[in-house]
């Protein structure tokens, strides 16, 4: 079968790989019908050393179940399913608390890292712990809702997690840092949770326009001290109750603690490209700023978010501005890296 | 009048200073009847450079109102009052939200820093924003409850804040790092909020014994990796839901993120002696660890905590193991620094 492999920074290829097959009785084999490229795929695309690859890519997909191990009970051959970006058993203590990304099962973890021989940017995927991981979709594989339903695998659930972990509610003013797909869906999520003011920080007009459509009340195009000053001017001088940091770089984090209100929360969902960062008296401590967030347990949110997609209340699939087949994936990476594509949908 | 001045690290003196007097119509003048030395006073005692001093010391006191400015309405001459370690107006947006330590009033802030000419380790204090800051006590100045009521000015409220900011409740397992007065009162506070397991990390037996009396279910005397391993063994392998970090050093913070459970919270009330610290994928992000805490808005907690002291449910004043007059204050600093005193009560 054909799959996407990253050999090193800037070098993504479509190659023939051994067919994915059932290995464990809890596995399902899924024929991928829709997949995509993630903003987080751009980190290795920018920096992977040659000895880091070749790595199988892709952790967001929808597909049709082709086969199941003998212990799988919740999905069956022919079902259309969506897979979250983390594999989880759905039964351990962490899954029961809704923290599926910390599932204690030995086979749980992230595509690529913990399931190194599988990836969503491919013709098929072996899905471990299928009962815990996969969710059946009540539509056909060619439904017009597929792009929006595909965002349940990562970006919509991640934007929602940012807002939930940040404690967004109807009384909160929110700043969203980053106009990528996650940032825009953090805007949509904050709006969905009723935030009274949503300030989107981004400088790419087509994207911030979509952010306004998703619910942003203000857009700040400046960065650094100037951007922080603008946030303060828009919030009566004190900053926002919640900052959703959807980038992961140090400047984005600095922006976050500059823009947050005393007693407020910085919620991070952009994978941090740093380990140490300011959290002492001058940055977080003095004014009781809280830090929250992490990899979104998107599996926990699918049942809550899906109805809003099915009934048309939200259309998160609008973040896809490009569609390609597998052959177009290397170009898709290039276009997302140079920001000519916001997010690329793959139809293998 | 006589007051405590720190001239440099290790050099604390009792000296004559100009009498405190009313300066603003919102001030009160308080004759101090009980004060104390704080663990946080030990940071400058260990490190203050000669050009940092002389600094007036003390931010925890009980006293009798001697005079009030013409706008003060809630306390009057003869009242016994307790002062929190932060001055606040009680009326701004932050005070109304219970975050008095971020009061927006121009005269608000911390004794010593924002009110540089006054300190609690003295015969008298001018208290700015008296209506917002002071709380009347329903006992006499010689009441046996004074030591416990004095802890409302800082250490009890700070331990309580650690527990509240960490989200401690009846379902949480808690680790407390530090066997100083704040750590021990964080134990008491976690117990008061119903925590099912409270593991105190400390190695000073007299203190950890008091910790057990306050509600600690376990004591861990080891530190570093060994201490983290013990916490994990005591919690079924995953660590505690909440870690109350009551020290402020980098090793204490590292201990905290080693001991906290996925999805859990590190709540810091020890003043951080670092600015940058690990918060990336490997430390906080991977498992959605939350970071909370800061200077405790103890003013917000006095009305809630005082009844438990008055009715004898709790006796936080047990953290005082030494009592002295003003002349004994320099020795008090020495004994707290070398850990022969846990906390020193001052009767000026």
Automatic annotation (TrEMBL), chains A, B:
Pfam families: ADH_N, ADH_zinc_N. Its cofactor is Zn(2+). Residues 25-138 form the Alcohol dehydrogenase-like N-terminal domain. Gene3D superfamilies: Medium-chain alcohol dehydrogenases, catalytic domain, NAD(P)-binding Rossmann-like Domain. One of its GO terms (molecular function) is zinc ion binding. InterPro entries: ADH-like_C (IPR013149), ADH-like_N (IPR013154), ADH_Zn_CS (IPR002328), GroES-like_sf (IPR011032), NAD(P)-bd_dom_sf (IPR036291). It comes from the Bacteria. Keywords: Metal-binding, Oxidoreductase, Zinc. Transmembrane segments: none annotated. The keyword Zinc applies. The keyword Zinc applies. Residues 181-293 form the Alcohol dehydrogenase-like C-terminal domain. Belongs to the zinc-containing alcohol dehydrogenase family. PANTHER family: DEHYDROGENASE, ZINC-CONTAINING, PUTATIVE (AFU_ORTHOLOGUE AFUA_2G02810)-RELATED, ZINC-TYPE ALCOHOL DEHYDROGENASE-LIKE. This is IMP dehydrogenase. It comes from Phytohabitans houttuyneae.
């Amino acid at each position: 079968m054909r799959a996407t492999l990253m050999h090193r920074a800037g070098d993504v290829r479509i190659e023939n790989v051994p067919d994915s097959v059932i290995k464990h009785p809890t596995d399902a084999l899924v024929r991928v019908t829709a997949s995509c490229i993630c903003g987080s795929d751009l980190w290795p695309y920018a920096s992977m050393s040659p000895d880091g690859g070749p790595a199988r890519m892709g952790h967001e997909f929808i597909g049709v179940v082709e086969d199941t191990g003998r212990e799988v009970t919740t999905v069956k051959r022919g079902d259309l399913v969506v897979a979250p970006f983390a594999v989880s058993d759905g039964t351990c203590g962490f899954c029961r608390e809704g923290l599926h990304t910390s599932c204690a099962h030995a086979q749980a973890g992230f595509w690529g890292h913990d399931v190194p021989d599988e990836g969503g940017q491919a013709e098929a995927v072996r899905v471990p712990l299928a009962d815990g991981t996969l969710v059946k979709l009540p539509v056909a594989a060619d439904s017009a809702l597929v792009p929006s339903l595909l965002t349940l695998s990562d970006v919509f659930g991640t934007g929602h997690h940012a807002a939930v972990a940040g404690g967004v509610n109807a009384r909160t003013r929110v700043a969203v840092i980053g106009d990528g797909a996650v940032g825009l869906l953090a805007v949509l999520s904050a709006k969905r949770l009723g935030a009274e003011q949503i300030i989107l920080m981004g400088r790419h007009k087509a994207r911030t326009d979509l952010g306004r459509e998703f619910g942003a009340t203000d857009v700040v195009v400046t960065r650094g001290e100037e951007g922080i000053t603008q946030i303060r001017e828009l919030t009566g001088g004190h900053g926002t109750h919640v900052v959703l940091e959807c980038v992961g770089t140090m400047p984005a984090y600095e922006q976050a603690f500059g823009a947050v209100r005393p007693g407020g929360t910085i919620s991070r969902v952009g994978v941090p490209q740093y380990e140490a960062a300011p959290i002492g008296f001058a940055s977080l401590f003095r004014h009781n700023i809280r830090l929250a967030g992490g990899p979104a347990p998107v599996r926990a949110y699918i049942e809550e978010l899906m109805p809003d997609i099915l009934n048309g209340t939200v259309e998160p699939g609008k973040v896809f501005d490009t569609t390609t087949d597998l052959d177009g994936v290397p170009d898709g990476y290039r276009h997302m890296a140079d920001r000519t594509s916001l997010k690329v949908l793959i139809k293998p």
